[in-house]
Amino acid sequence: MEASGMDRLRITGGQKLQGTVTVSGAKNAALPQIAAAFLSPHPLELTNLPQVSDVDNMLQVAALYGAEVERGAHATTIDAGSIRSCEVSYDTVRRMRATVLFLAPLLARFGSARVSLPGGCAIGARPVDMHIRALEALGASIDIENGLIVASASAGLKGARVVLASPSVGATETAMMAATMASGETEILNAAREPEVADLAACLAAMGAHIEGAGTHRILIAGGTEWKPAKHHGIPDRIEAGTYAVAAAITGGTLELTNARIENLAAVIQLLEAMGTNVWPSSRGLVVSRNGPLQTADITTEPYPGFPTDLQAQFMALACIAEGTSLIRETIFENRFMHVPELIRLGAEIRLQGTTAVIHGGKPLKGAQVMATDLRASVSLVLAALAAEGETVINRVYHLDRGYEQLDRKLAQCGAHIERLRD
Ligand SMILES: CC(=O)N[C@H]1[C@@H](OP(=O)(O)OP(=O)(O)OC[C@H]2O[C@@H](n3ccc(=O)[nH]c3=O)[C@H](O)[C@@H]2O)O[C@H](CO)[C@@H](O)[C@@H]1O
Ligand SMILES: C=C(OP(=O)(O)O)C(=O)O
């Protein structure tokens, strides 16, 4: 049955999760790769694609530009041979910020593009000034007109040094994609080092691009790519893996996370261990287990390889269970504490002091009706509910469906008492 926007999740807490969870492909790797397909007139086949609504929406937007999109369960082929650099309505793109990633490929391929300026969202204002500065450094002229980013480079983009003011993931991806079609070489300095950036580079390389240094602060891209048909298998979702690791820790259970890549989770594993959870590699991924008491934490979100902002809300739920005071500082987004009032509804004691959350853990959590306004905030409520006494109903499940493939089924298979209430 199709998931509805108004579905709710009912969770009865108290079960120790046991079993195996298969980690899906990374949403945040898939989204830029769908945009990258626009650089080439040849088909790009993406495998290990997660079945999440953000991917569906991104593919729908690709189709609006004229791409031929074939969709399998965990794969897609995007043929951008006959796309147009047209305008897609704000209503279509406002649901997803990642659609701004179509700007660079459209501009690089057609010499002009008009893409809706994405709005802010629940976690922050999220401007795209660094994307724009990067394209300007490559020779584009850019104006903002009636809510649109209007970009042109009639003489083509020219390779250059692009120095990012901070290591933005999206701006690094924009610069890297544009540079593959510029004339000459581009050097991106202060580049984001996230694994999803390196995976985009691997995808672009399979398509014919020449890129060095992705995954480091300095990326070199040779322009003038001769594109070819390509196939790329995306990396597993490190944020989904981290979320299930917290599910094991918060319930005092044991989960094997198949496909999880230890090398992309170093800061997360270090923190789990510091909080009293055991983590070890298995032949298929990693195992996370807790049977002793949880310890408090002192967490600061940072760009990769630091602790990821996309796991901040989940670890806040975990800190609520640890006896004593934990601190969580959010340094990436200015408003990413929307889960705090809802965790308080479940009985947590949390005080906000500017960008720091002070969690007085160890108070018993009790089920309640809750809802959240973004993906990771929602999943933190699911995690807290797994550890809470009694029944929790989480509204607005569509936030979860944006980025978690079959969350309810994966948790139920490991013993969680979780049920999707269809609208
Ligand atoms: C689809 C995707 O991959 N999303 C991820 C990506 O988002 P996204 O690519 O949007 O995140 P960025 O790394 O660009 O943003 C980091 C910070 O820089 C700011 N900024 C960014 C661009 C810009 O032009 N100007 C500016 O000020 C943002 O508002 C934010 O405060 O990385 C974030 C940080 O790891 C993750 O939380 C998101 O899950
Ligand atoms: C913030 C996230 O995604 P997006 O950048 O697509 O909003 C996320 O995945 O947690």
Automatic annotation (TrEMBL):
Gene3D superfamilies: Enolpyruvate transferase domain (3.65.10.10). UDP-N-acetyl-alpha-D-glucosamine binds at residues 97, 310, 332. Its EC number is 2.5.1.7. Phosphoenolpyruvate binds at residues 27-28. Pathway: Cell wall biogenesis; peptidoglycan biosynthesis. Residues 12-411 form the Enolpyruvate transferase domain. GO terms for biological process: cell division; cell wall organization; peptidoglycan biosynthetic process; regulation of cell shape; UDP-N-acetylgalactosamine biosynthetic process. It is an enzyme of class 2 (transferase). One of its GO terms (molecular function) is UDP-N-acetylglucosamine 1-carboxyvinyltransferase activity. The active site is at 121 (proton donor). It is found in: Cytoplasm. InterPro entries: Enolpyruvate_Tfrase_dom, Enolpyruvate_Tfrase_sf, MurA_subfamily, RNA3'P_cycl/enolpyr_Trfase_a/b, UDP_GlcNAc_COvinyl_MurA. The modification 2-(S-cysteinyl)pyruvic acid O-phosphothioketal is found at residue 121. GO terms for cellular component: cytoplasm. Cell wall formation. Adds enolpyruvyl to UDP-N-acetylglucosamine. NCBIfam families: murA, PRK09369.1. Belongs to the EPSP synthase family. MurA subfamily. This is UDP-N-acetylglucosamine 1-carboxyvinyltransferase. It comes from Nitratireductor indicus C115. The lineage of its organism: Bacteria, Pseudomonadati, Pseudomonadota, Alphaproteobacteria, Hyphomicrobiales.
